[in-house]
Design brief:
Blueprint lengths: L2 E3 L6 E3 L1 E4 L13 H13 L4 E3 L7 H10 L9 E6 L14 H4 L2 H15 L4 E6 L12 H10 L3 E7 L9 H4 L6 E5 L11 H8 L2 E5 L23 H4 L4 H16 L6 H10 L4 E7 L3 H8 L9 H8 L10
Parallel strand pairs: 3-4, 3-10, 4-5, 5-6, 6-7, 7-8, 8-9, 9-10
Antiparallel strand pairs: 1-2
Helix pairs in contact: 1-2, 1-11, 2-4, 4-5
């Protein structure tokens, strides 16, 4: 495993982080507590030291907590990040809501206390807001609460997880200097963060946590025409209608340009995300031992060449399947 500095935090995190949404047994169907714990333990054995979860991920925080408690060290040396969900629903479109309706300070504190109980820890290394609208900058009492939680030792650092496919929707608050990290979708298809957000993070010393590097499976090559998922799995919605066929055509063109087989695509996709400016770690969902070992093996692969990155830049695909 290779490691990088998480912005100016002083934390040194694994290039591949563990995205724990799929461990929650809600939106992603097919996991169970025991297999989830085995996968997480294997990732930690292989050098992963950063775990990202959230209050909104159903059982995820509890599963992460169990996995860490079962380690001889109790999880010492493992960095845990979680997220505070909005108090009321917030759409991807501009909501017009006041930040005091969405993230009042009391809500942040209550959510964190619940997370700490689920995780079985007295602090988290990183607390993130699970959504954001830049017009909220300078409003509300959330920042005072964040500062208080830091003073109390309940959180070490603070960040924001940016709305899906809206990397510019955090630039105002980022430039105030209050953020330690930003979490953003960044992959071969979704390259927009490289235009303004990633350079701004580099300028201000803000660590970047890349998410959805495999585009919910699209960039593994497993999404083909006619693909099916278990009943109740959210991917039935994400890849609905003709979307799987669209993905198949895009992926086939990508493979042809690179001159590689489909089995090599996940490694290329992860290395692309890691090549982004200021990216500290790329969090990946890994519910099976095989996927853990495949993704962590990226640490043994060389960085993509300038020529490969130039080619991949041409495969940008501005889409938003979350709509």
């Amino acid at each position: 495993m290779r490691y990088r500095e998480l912005g100016r935090t002083g934390l040194t995190v694994s290039e591949i982080g563990f995205g724990a949404w799929g461990l929650g047994q809600g939106a992603w169907v097919g996991a169970d507590d025991d297999s989830a714990v085995r996968a997480l333990h294997r990732a930690l054995d292989l050098g992963v030291n950063f775990i990202d979860t959230a209050r909104a991920y159903d059982r995820s925080e509890g599963v992460v907590g169990r996995a860490l408690r079962e380690l001889p060290s109790g999880g010492d040396g493992v960095y845990v990040a979680t997220k505070v969900g909005s108090k009321i629903p917030v759409s991807l479109a501009p909501s017009g809501l006041d930040v005091m309706e969405v993230f009042p300070g009391a809500h942040l504190r209550e959510s964190l206390e619940t997370s700490l109980r689920e995780l079985g820890r007295d602090h988290v290394d990183l607390l993130q807001l699970h959504t954001w609208e830049d017009e909220w900058t300078g409003r509300g009492d959330w920042l005072e609460t964040v500062d208080a939680l830091k003073e109390e030792g309940k959180i070490r650092f603070f960040g924001i997880s940016v709305k899906d496919h809206q990397p510019e929707n955090v630039l105002t608050v980022l430039r105030t200097g209050v953020l330690d990290t930003v979490q953003v979708i960044y992959n071969i298809f979704e390259q927009a963060p490289s235009e303004a957000l990633l350079p701004a993070c580099a300028e201000y010393g803000v660590g970047v946590i890349g998410r959805v590097a495999l585009d919910e499976g699209a960039l593994t090559g497993s999404i083909r025409t006619g693909v099916t998922f278990p009943e109740g799995d959210w991917r039935n919605w994400y890849f609905r209608d003709d979307r799987a066929a669209l993905v198949e055509r895009r992926v086939d063109a990508l493979l042809a340009d690179l001159g590689i087989g489909v089995d090599e695509l996940p490694s290329v996709a992860l290395r692309f995300a890691l090549a982004g400016q200021a990216v500290s770690t790329v969090i990946v969902g890994m519910r099976s031992l095989a996927n853990v070992e495949r993704n962590v093996a990226v640490a043994e692969a060389p960085p993509l060449t300038d020529g490969q990155l130039t080619l991949l830049a041409k495969h940008r695909w501005p889409k938003n399947f979350y709509n």
